[in-house]
Write a structure and sequence with these properties.
By secondary structure, the protein is an alpha+beta fold. Helix content is about 35%, strand content about 15%. Helix 4 packs antiparallel against helix 5. The longest helix is centred in the middle third of the chain and has 20 residues. It is globular and about 60 Å long.
Length: about 280
């Protein structure tokens, strides 16, 4: 951590301005603050909290990992991470670009999105995931709350607190994940059976659930386990599920319960154009 940038408190104002709004949102790992400089430029300070029963050593390792992953990403559909810094209250904060239209979950609650708009957002999501997977990174917590919209309502993936590097540029083979993370309704079935799994397939499953939720505005199961009635019904008769949901067959093809048969991100992007056009 000592190698990461630590600016004196007085330099925060000159680089990022002053806090103009507190607690924009309260996430699982910290609060969000909005900063504005003298030029009117805004950025987000995400306050990083040490979890209950988490050692300081693990906390430092966790936030350093999140920053190291997110700060190297450069893509139109990935939120830019600018800095890791201590604020005036001595709290560690991740500084990120401000996306003024909020997250996709809030947006879908207040806007009636048409089919074309949903398809466009899904394309943008998969382009962001494609970039991540091609660079050896899996997000592992994709959901509408972690997808934000900028001033032009372009979608960007954020919150890399659960992200993993499954392959470095110097490796040929991927590393399987054994750390279960994410949000229950978006988690893939293999995450619930306590085995090592391919984190890329987890992201693909989450993409399918996101598309389903955007069209239906509801969950069909709480967890992808056989004891869940909704998921059990899906396994028994997929063709009768998701009644009146657009692109039903396409969504079903994404949600293959077998991760070894589930399409990868390149196949998903190719199938988007075949199904949406």
């Amino acid at each position: 951590m000592s190698s990461l940038i630590k600016k004196p408190h007085e330099q925060i104002s000159s680089n990022y301005g002053k806090c103009c709004k507190k607690f924009l949102n309260k996430g699982a790992h910290g609060c969000i603050h909005l900063y504005k400089n003298t030029n009117g430029e805004m950025c987000i300070f995400k306050e990083l909290k040490q979890e209950k029963n988490e050692s300081k050593k693990h906390f430092i390792k966790r936030i350093a990992s999140e920053f190291c992953i997110s700060s190297v990403l450069e893509h139109p559909h990935i939120v830019k991470t600018l800095d890791l810094i201590k604020d005036s209250h001595n709290h560690w904060c991740e500084v990120m670009e401000y996306c003024e239209n909020g997250d996709l979950y809030q947006y879908m609650q207040t806007h009636k999105m048409n089919q074309s708009e949903i398809c466009n957002y899904f394309r943008q999501l998969t382009q962001g995931v494609l970039y991540l997977h091609e660079n050896g990174i899996a997000h592992k917590d994709l959901k509408p709350e972690n997808l934000v919209l900028d001033s032009n309502c372009n979608l960007k993936i954020t919150d890399f607190g659960e992200a993993e590097v499954f392959k470095t540029p110097f490796e040929k083979d991927i590393h399987l994940s054994h750390i279960v993370s994410g949000t229950y309704p978006y988690m893939a079935p293999e995450e619930f059976i306590h085995i090592d799994f391919d984190a890329r397939a987890v992201d693909i499953w989450a993409c399918g659930i996101i598309l389903l939720v955007l069209f239906s505005k509801r969950f069909f199961w709480t967890r992808a386990i056989t004891s869940d009635p909704g998921y059990c019904n899906f396994l028994k008769n997929k063709q009768k599920c998701f009644t009146n949901v657009p692109f039903r067959d396409f969504i079903i093809s994404i949600l293959d319960p077998d991760p070894n048969k589930r399409m990868n991100i390149h196949e998903l992007c190719d199938n988007i154009e075949k199904n949406f056009n």
